[in-house]
Write a structure and sequence with these properties.
Layout: H1 12-32, E1 37-40, H2 60-77, E2 80-84, H3 88-91, H4 96-105, E3 117-118, E4 120-125, E5 128-133, H5 145-163, E6 170-173, E7 180-186, E8 189-195, H6 204-207, E9 218-227, E10 230-239
Parallel strand pairs: 1-2, 2-3, 5-6, 6-8
Antiparallel strand pairs: 4-5, 7-8, 9-10
Helix pairs in contact: 2-4
């Protein structure tokens, strides 16, 4: 339901994503039995990104209502909800729309600032430390997709060593709409850094960036099972098929029907 009572009918690809969203929710139920914490790692709203004409509505109240329809049931069952802030193009230059969404969905408030959404989150669950924020570098070359993750992990390790802080067990990033997970062995255990997939199809903007034209969207989310000081990460990832191959048959003219053109009647070429 849109503003003033209008309705939006989803397309066939959106229908597929909606079915996957149902599968993901069932996977959450199966793996957690309702005992879970929900983390939304930024950019759940589209906003007015690049002045796109492909969003179902550029009315941010419509987008907020849609976000509540999709995430509301998960949030109501969660033990706690945490929201990190995404990019200004989606969330608002001061993350005002992400903050409105976080307040509406009942996210845990930051103890220091009192806001419902935050730029970054350090969350200790039992004895597993999670470091989450939205931003991470992207790459137009598949062979370098892991570079940004290793760079980010190295930065985190360096800062922890520099200031004597505890090293996170899980480093969660998003932004790039592509999933990748790298477990890194270290003294005292393993740190896994991973990027989440997204719940969005390709926009015309994607076709204009390096690698965007040939890559297919990665759809999904991640579930982390924690027990004491151990964890197991599971990633629900689906991909839209590539653009279909179009087939066409060109009628062949039988050789017997071809009449040779006299030399004097051939078209003049300049």
């Amino acid at each position: 339901m849109l503003d003033l009572g209008g309705r939006y009918k989803i397309g066939w690809l959106q229908e597929i994503i909606w079915q996957w969203w149902g599968e993901f929710r069932r996977e959450i139920d199966k793996r957690t039995r309702g005992n879970y914490i929900l983390l939304v790692n930024g950019d759940w709203l589209e906003g007015d990104h690049h002045r796109t004409k492909n969003a179902f509505s550029l009315n941010l109240n419509d987008q907020l209502a849609a976000a509540m329809v999709t995430l509301g049931p998960l949030a109501r069952r969660a033990k706690a909800v945490y929201i990190t802030r995404g990019t200004g193009a989606h969330a608002g230059q001061s993350a005002e729309w992400e903050e409105a969404f976080a307040r509406e969905i009942g996210a845990v408030r930051d103890k220091n600032s009192g806001v419902y959404s935050r730029p970054a989150l350090n969350l200790l669950i039992e004895d597993v430390l999670v470091n989450a924020s939205h931003y991470i570098g992207i790459s137009g070359s598949t062979q370098y997709e892991s570079s940004a993750l290793m760079q980010e992990a190295t930065r985190v390790f360096t800062e922890c060593a520099r200031w004597g802080r505890r090293v996170p067990d899980l480093i969660v990033r998003s932004h790039r709409h592509r999933h990748l997970a790298i477990p890194i062995k270290r003294d005292g255990g393993t740190t896994t850094i991973f990027t989440t997939a997204a719940w969005q199809l390709k926009t015309p903007y994607v076709y204009g960036i390096a690698g965007g034209g040939v890559s297919t969207p990665q759809i999904g989310g991640s579930i982390i099972a924690i027990d004491g000081n151990t964890y197991q990460d599971y990633h629900f990832i689906r991909s839209i098929d590539q653009d279909p191959i179009e087939e066409i048959e060109i009628a062949q003219v039988p050789k017997t029907d071809r009449k040779p053109m006299a030399r004097g009647n051939r078209p003049h070429r300049r």
